[in-house]
Amino acid sequence: MLARRPSRAFLKRDTQRFLLIVHISLATCLFGVVLLLNRFLSPEQWWAHWIVFAWLPLLFIHAGIFIKKTLSTMGK
User: Fold this and answer.
1) Is residue 9 part of a domain?
2) Tell me: the pLDDT tens digits for 20-59?
3) Position 26 in a domain
4) What total number of domains does the chain contain?
5) Distance CA 70, CA 16 (A)
6) Using a CB cutoff of 8 Å and minimum separation of 24, what contacts does 22-26 make?
7) Residue 73, Ramachandran bin (φ over 0: left; ψ between -120 and 50: alpha; else beta)
8) 2, 10, 51, 63: which has the fewest Cβ within 10 Å?
């Protein structure tokens, strides 16, 4: 029996899913770096949360764009 090749829509969804995971993982690591920098460079003043709070809405908007692109391939 011959193996079927995945459809273009499946490959697009798979690529979008991979990019979303990479993007969220990278953002999480960078947030961790910022928190560590805050902890060791200026532990008496807490400023890292402002950076995280500023970037989180952008991360959610970007994730929404990825999800919309992924869902647009459903049913194809």
Assistant:
1) no
2) 889 889 999 999 999 999 999 999 999 999 999 999 898 8
3) yes
4) 1
5) 6
6) 23/59, 23/62, 23/63, 23/66, 24/59, 24/63
7) alpha
8) 2
